[in-house]
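Key idea: predict the complex, not the pieces.
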Amino acid sequence: MSNHEWMTPKAKAIPKESSEWEQGRYGPVWPKTPACYGFTIIADVIPGRAETIRNYGVKLEEALKGSPEILAPLKLHYLRWVLFDNDTRFMYQGIFDTDFDKYTEDAIQLFGLAGVDTVFENLVGFPTDWKTNAPAFIKFVREHQCNSFLEYGEYPFVSADEIKKALKLKAAFSEMLDQMQ
Amino acid sequence: MLELDDIQHYLLTRPHATIAEYVFVTFKNAESGRNWIASLLDTVGNAKTVMAASDTDMRWVSMAFTFNGLKALGLDEESLSTFPEPFRQGMAARAAMLGDTGANHPDHWEDHMASPDLHAVVILFARDKAEKERCIAKHQEYLHQNPGVQVLSTLHLEAIPPYDYVHEHFGYRDRITTPVIEGLGIEPSPGSHPPSKPGEFFLGYPDESGAIVPLPKPEALTKNGSYIAYRKMQEHVGAFRDYLKANGKTVEEQELIAAKMMGRWRKSGAPLVLSPDKDDHELGFDDSRNNMFDYEKMDPHGYACPVGAHIRRMNVRDNSVSQIMHRRLIIRRGGTYGPHLPDDAPEDGANRGIAVFAGCADISRQFEFLISVWANDTGFEELNERDPFCGLQDGTLDMVIPKRPIKRRLKNIPAFTNVRGGAYFFLPGISGLKYLATLNVKR
Ligand code: HEM
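Result:
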């Protein structure tokens, strides 16, 4: 990013669909925006299962303490988990640098390791045979994906790796200045 | 346990052959097609007998079918609809996603590869030319008996000189790395993947998820089968050599650049991670060491092997890039076609290259992922590059060679290769072939 694109905050309006979108293995790929790649999955909770889902929050927290590197291949920024409408609906939102569509099988596997699949099993319409039927899992995700119509980035297009690199450099630099005292 | 006597030998073992012929055919009518399969059945080798390595038993024929081929043979609609979508669509229909655009677009493919009339391929291996001639003459006989089966194209494959090691036209030693399948008693070379569950390559067995993926119907056809994705890639040897010369002042520097693009030294296959500065012939040919490396711990920044090198893209060997590399493996088969271009000869414009089949159980998860994402996604590891050999190149992208204190940039990588054809085939088991041979026949 030689032209310091990240200095200028930027927004992008996203059409409902577009013939210009790249075709992925499972259909059109949603474009990269100043807020990177991402998805928002919204689905109905199987009645009575909201508590089960909520309890997984704690389990996931623990799982990730144990192996913090586990989701690294997905090049994530943030994940958000929300129960809403009186615990009848569930939203799962992720912000990524990799394009989720391209790495869906990785995501399924990693979500499996992190216990996310067990959460999905509490959602209406989630395929029971998802373990042997990746296309069905992917279809569920794509059918429940709600595309943004606008995304904004305060520091557009900057990747998590770049942020980490910059912070490392900053840390090394201040250490160097300390050494020079 | 694998039913070795019901699996075609093709993905499990290599016969002692130096010559091969691909024959691509179309079925004008179903009955001819079925009879033709029946007449060839006896020459199709199963894995058990071919692995027993009897040089006297040369049943080295393999047969595989496109989706249109299964349809033309009369497979019913209901069964056809149970095959996975990529196979049903065929490779040409998925060109945009695979990166087969521009000069690689199916409009430019040869050998009728993009035609809906492409129905089947027969792969003949032979120990020598005389044996090949005999096989082809025999095949001609079968074709005469079944005039409804017509040859669309043929491709002759032959090893190129020097003959003391397997290599392709650019001069890279090949066939070093291949997945090993559990239960066959074969040990992977040190540093390679642990043996794969059979279901990664053969239908009807547990795969790495632990489960058996439901088979397309009918099981009598699909059990013990595999998918093989075909890629014919022309290699522009002159352009490749010119590029090395333009970017390397000395022969040593040219060799280093060639190695950096591949991840292995050209003449020996020695991995750059273990021998970053110069070729090491002994290491390259030592199977106990030539895969004994990773990238994550030994070369995280790519100072030895650039992150964009061909073998580092095709097998990432780094958990932070992929935790499911064991689900992205393919069994590579095939060889070189076209005349050898001697080292000192100028480009002669001849069509030469590699014609390979990638064997797998899931076309999309394995083959298509490798090509569409790891070969062609410029976002791969934030490189803004594509694979120098099997990615789409048109001179607009560079390739970075990490180096201290500052990186080196290989500018404007041209198209060293072009895709000249491709198709998805289903390679049935032996009983699957029998099923096709007797399909719809009143018994
Ligand atoms: C003209 C194009 C190509 C050339 C010149 C080429 C050459 C090579 C060479 C020399 C090797 C190293 C030998 C070995 O590890 O056995 C290799 C490895 C490999 N290639 Fe290619 N290749 C080409 C196209 C492809 C395509 C189309 C695919 C995928 C379908 C592919 C997939 C692989 C894989 C998976 C490996 C093994 C990497 C490893 O395990 O470290 N290659 N290739």
